[in-house]
Amino acid sequence: MNLKTIRGKFGIIIFLITVMVFTNGILSYKGDRDIKSVNKTTFPAYKLSNQMSTSLISVWQYLSDISATRALDGLDDGLQMAEDNANKFKMAANDLKSIEPDKAKQIDDILKAFDDYYTVGKKMANIYIKDGTEAGNKFMPQFDEASEKILELTNKFAKDQDSDIESSLGKSAFQNNLSLYILITSGAILVVFIFILSGQVLKPLNELVEYAGAIAKGDLSKQSRISKRKDEIGQLAYAFEVSVQSLRNIISKIDYTSKTVNSFSKDLTGASKLTSSASNQVASSIEEISTGATKQLNEINQVSMLMTKLDSDIKKAVDKLEETSRITMESQNISKLGAKSMGDIESNMSLIFEFNKKNVEKIGELEKNSLKINQIVEAITQIATQTNLLALNAAIEAARAGESGRGFSVVSEEIRKLAEESSVSAGLITNVVKEIQEQIQEITLYISNGTKYVEDGVAVVNEASSRFNGIEVNASDILRYVKEVADFSKDINSVSNKISKYTKDILLIVENSSTFTEEVMAASEENTANIHNMAASINELTKLTEDLGELVRSFNI
């Protein structure tokens, strides 16, 4: 909240009023709650406490009376009356315990002491009645002791009740006094704040009224002293100041305009003198228009004849151009077909390149396989060598007999293993040979396809050559037609130059005629307007200038 603005200041007032009302409301609520508590608890408890005291005194009184009268001469109702008051005492004590449960223990102590007191009192009264005064007097100290105990407890409880009442009433009085104090203090602060705020608001408002009065009288020279305030009045004063500045600028412009209008009125006076000169120029322009019209008629006849010849030449040129266009379109179609043929050639050549590339790759694979065959052959050679050695060993072992027969068996096993390796190598050689045969077949197929594509490429080249020959023939025809069109164009150009010359002459005459006509019309209209309105305009401008000057002089800028 901005305290520099009027809204903020009034907000503080509203806030103070709200706080004051809220505080008083809380205090009033608490006071009302305390009063209700006193009416509901404290006063009933106080009445019950008094009732207990009254009942206790009555019990003592009736027991004492019957002890003194010994129930003689018809005075035998004391015990019954004492019993009734004892019951009243107990009922009041129980009611009091339900009202003030926090004092239940104290009340229970009182009830216990009362029971002892009442028991002793009844016993004493019966002794007085039955055994006489002397016997009863002996029991009197015990009764007095019980009486003092119950009186002590009841008196203490009564004092506590009095203290509770005084505390509740004092608390209620304090809250009422506090509420009144807060109300008076808040009201005083509110009055002071309103007084200060009214001074802060009314003073600048009076200055603003004075400033507005000066503006109403036409005095725009004064400056506002409160436009720099941060509140709403300052904003209003600033708006006034901006408006005055705008009005000051408008008045200055009006003053300048009035002077300018006065100058224009003087210029109009001078313009009236030029009207006569413009009339003379109109007569001269009309004469020049008449001469130009005669010359223009002759030029138009010449242009008409040239246009007839130009039309014939243009028709011939159009015929040749149409034929040229037809041949050009044919050439364009042939060129498109030729371009397509060249594309087919390029595609066939690409395929031939791919097939040749694959042939080279297959040949490379054949070379690798041939190397594998060499390796296998070398392995077979080594196996054969080892076989020969083993055969030699077998022969040596075979020469031996007896125990050496086992060595021959080992050699035979080795020969068997070498034979198996020879068989595996032979299988590998067979597989490699098959792969070589398959690759040779693929190479043959690729070469056949390459040959076919080469033949197709040759045919396409021949077709493209034929089509380009047709383009050459059409180009010769186009060249011939173009030469004929060029001849016609030369004639057309010659005629066109003449027409252009005549047209320029006619255009110049027309422009001059148009200019002269516009000048004549403008001059005529200007003269007519000037003659009828010039005097009235000058008088009106003079009057407006005077009125405007008086209006400006009414402001003090």
Automatic annotation (TrEMBL):
Q: What residues does the HAMP domain cover?
A: 199-252
Q: Give the family this protein belongs to, as stated in its UniProt record.
A: Belongs to the methyl-accepting chemotaxis (MCP) protein family.
| Any single GO BP term | signal transduction
**Name the record gives this protein:** Methyl-accepting chemotaxis protein
> InterPro entries, per this entry?
HAMP_dom, MCPsignal_dom
- Chain ranges passing through the membrane: 6-27, 178-197
Q: Which GO terms describe its cellular component?
A: membrane
Q: Where is the Methyl-accepting transducer domain?
A: 271-507
Q: Which organism is it from?
A: Clostridium manihotivorum
**What Gene3D superfamilies does the record point to?**
HAMP domain in histidine kinase, Methyl-accepting chemotaxis protein
